[in-house]
Amino acid sequence: MKLDADAIAEAALGLLDEVGLDGLTMRKVAAVLNVQAPALYWHVKNKRELLDVMARALFVAAMADVEAPRRDEDWREWMCAIAARLRRAMLRYRDGARVLAGTYVNEEVVWRSIELTLRTMEDAGFTTEQAARVFPITLHYTIGFVIEEQTRGGEEYPDGNPYVPERIAARVDGVRFPRAARLSTNLSTLADFDGEFDYGLRVIMAGIVATRGDDVE
Predict the structure, then answer these.
(1) Which SS3 state, helix, strand or coil, does residue 110 take?
(2) Is the Cβ–Cβ distance between 93 and 13 less than 8 Å?
(3) The CATH number of domain 62-152+191-212 is 3.40.50.10420
(4) Are 9 and 43 in contact (CB under 8 A)?
(5) If 49 and its partner were Cys, which of 11, 43, 44, 115 is the partner (CB 3.0–4.6 Å)?
(6) Domain map of the chain by residue range?
């Protein structure tokens, strides 16, 4: 196998389910690739750059074949579909959203995705300045949602997952906080991450239209 940034990213992403992001080290990645850790530093100087190449691989896998909306496709549906693609890509890996959060990805696929988003918004009647706000809003919502979604798996807690509905319900004082108690007992039915993610996107889309302040549809 040729040792380059792409091979290192693939090996590192493959380790996430086993060790998580906090347990990921250059030494462990090197072991998977059957090389010594110093060999990696020719391609990634430190863990920060390792995360960047991992994020690039993740983002490219999600967005490489994205196309502009079809002629009859609503811009909101297109935006929601793009966000859903990115969410699915992050969910393939333990801590996938943390990998993407705050990373620097200088990649043609990123710029193409931004270009398509801006053009789609402008075609829908938004100004360039208005359109420029939309990409980061949906991107940050998507990454933040998946960080919360993956955290609720509870893998990092040695005493078991504290997000289990029964454990949360047992800790809420129903007399002092009746609404919170009712919510906690219903968490198992509310844990529809697909539905909640889609609902949040719809709220964002409605807000984008509302803050434009005219009759855009």
Answers:
(1) helix
(2) yes
(3) no
(4) no
(5) 44
(6) 62-152+191-212
DSSP of 8-68: HHHHHHHHHHHHTTTT--HHHHHHHTTS-HHHHTTT--SHHHHHHHHHHHHHHHHHTT--P
Residue 19: exposure state from Cβ atoms within 10 A (0-12, 13-18, ≥19): middle
Per-position pLDDT tens, the chain of length 217: 689 999 999 999 999 999 999 999 999 999 999 999 899 999 999 999 999 999 999 999 999 999 999 989 999 999 999 999 999 999 999 999 999 998 988 889 999 999 999 999 999 999 998 888 888 899 999 999 999 999 887 777 777 777 777 777 778 888 888 888 877 766 555 568 899 999 999 999 999 988 876 555 5
